[in-house]
Every structure is written in structure tokens, then in C-alpha cells.
Amino acid sequence: MEKSTIYLCCLIFLCLFTLNLEAQTLDRKLLTWERKTINIGAVLEEKGPVETVFYAVNLNLEDILFTDVVTDCGCTTVDFTKDTLATDKIGSIRVRFDPDHRGGEFSKVIIVRTNEDIYGDTLYLEGINMPIPENKEMAYPHRIGNLGFRLSAINMGNVFTNEPKVKYVEVHNFGRDTVALNTHQEFLPDYIQVSMEPAQLQSDQRGLLLLTYDGAIKGDLGYFDESLNLTLNDNEQLSLRLMTVVYEHFAPVPKSMEKTVPRLGLSEMEIDFKEISSNRKVSKTIFITNLGRENLLIKKLTSTCSCLDLNVSKTEIEAGERAELNIEFDPKGRRGIDHKHITLFSNDPINPVKTIIIKSSIK
Question: Which homologous superfamily is 136-247 in?
Fold first, then answer.
């Protein structure tokens, strides 16, 4: 009997404790932040610390007070509003990032606790740390005139059509004269914007080229290897190689809509021609099927080689219908094991891009 009583008391205590924890979780009074993530871009070590501010408003009926703000790195320090935030009042967290010798992208975590939220909100400070190189000649081996770059080409990476992408490119002036970009860039396409920080690059000074690439304005999809021609202050031309892959952005599709939206289906995603002669063209026809209820649009077909000839019977496919994709491969001048890729871009919001692999052994 005594053991049963003790067991019952323990059970009641655990239930009350659990309910109390749930009540605390439900009773959290959170601040509404303007932004929870701030990207400060590229940070050159020689420029010193960089500061930014997170703002939050109290939309609760209760007063809120910052009680503790901590960071995950000694390179990041904070200062915050000490006054009590009444309803509709705005508070701030000022963050200072001090760059060091460790280079690369970073994401610093800032935990903000208040008298009404013991768990804390999480803020993120992101950017790219660019330390001072120990050897300038080795750090910037690729020269164009008197300007030194780390690489011979600029890789923008993946660019989506919903927002422009910014790329930071280090540049060092090895010449004696000041270098700046001409205010008028005659040969710059409308989907690319370029600026330089600082605006004037002194002799033996490092700076940044800021390239902004707008995929929506580009109006095309796929891989692009372009030549970017910039005019400098002395009217000299700076030619840069720019590589980019542009993808269309699609909003997440609710589970209930997955069978309604256009869906791209392929009868084969790998074609093996096996052993073939280099003197004879080979071909294969596969089928593209619309597995959804809305019309499927084939927006673009690309391949990794001009030796592939692609023909699709139609680019708009109704629900349940299919189109033929004829693939002709000309192996002339090739020998050995060969792999090629075909990429399809469509309006399927779940899998808008699909790749077909073409394999063969050429004799």
C-alpha cells in the first residue's frame, strides 16, 4: 500500500511538472524582428571591424527587457538596448564583427534572451571574411594588365530568377597608377551590374569587384560562359571570364497540389549506345510525359556537346499526354568511352530540371 501511494505521488508530480513546462512554452512572449539574418557581405581584414544592427519591436501587452545576449565567437561582440521595451517600442542589438586571419564564409550565432523568453531568439550574422594574404604575388597570380586576381575566371555559381546574386571578387593593383571603373560601361549587359570598393584603387592596394547578376533580366536558363568587358578610368578594357548557371525559381508546392501542377516524366534518363563506330551517327527516341494536370512546358533543351542534335515534337504537353524527344549523336573524331549530358528545363515546380546521360564506347 505504501509503495502504491509513493508511486501515485510521483506520477502526479511528473504530470504537474510536464504541464508547468508546457505552460512556460506556450507563455513565451517573443519580440518581432525586422530581420533575423543579416549578411554584411565581404569583409576585408585591413578595413577593420564591421558593425550592423538588428531591430525588434515589442507587440505584446507585457513589457520586455533584454536580459542576456551571447555570441558563439569572440570575434563577434554585441551592445543592446538596456531600457524596458513597452508595447510597440523598438529595441536594438548592435553587432560588431572583427575580422581575423581565418578566411571564407561565416555564419555567427547570436542568442537573445528576455524576461519573457528564457529560451531566447536566434539571430545570424553572415558574410565572407577575406584576410590579408601573406604573399601578394602568390595570392593573385592571374594578371590582367596591372590588376591581379586569384583565379583566371569568375564563377557566379547558381543564380535563381527570384533575386539577383552578388559575387565579391578580390583584386589587387600592382601598378603605380590609381585604377577605377569608368562611370559609363558601354559593353556591360543589362542583367549585370558592377562596382568597385573602394571606388578608386590606389597603387599596391587590395579591393573588391562587386558583380550583381539578375537571372530574371537575363531571360534565359542554363549554363553560360561569358566574357565581361569593363572600361577603366584610362579607357583601357578589362576582360573577365564569367561562368554562371541560371535556374528558374519556384515557390514550394503544397502536398495537396503535387498531382495538380505540371510534372515532368521521362521514359529513360540514361541511354547507352554501347559500342559504336566513329563514322556512323546513332539516334534514340525517348518520351516526355506530363504526369500532372496542368500543361507542362519544355522551356529549354541543352547539351554538353554540339555533337548532339536534339528535336522535341512539341514544347507544350497537356495532362496525360507525351512528346517525343529524338536524340542524334555524331561520334565523328571521337574515340574511347564517352559520356554526354542533356538537360531539360521545364515548368515542373517540384523537379524543374532533369538530366539525361548519354553513354557510348566509340571505335
Answer: Immunoglobulins (2.60.40.10)
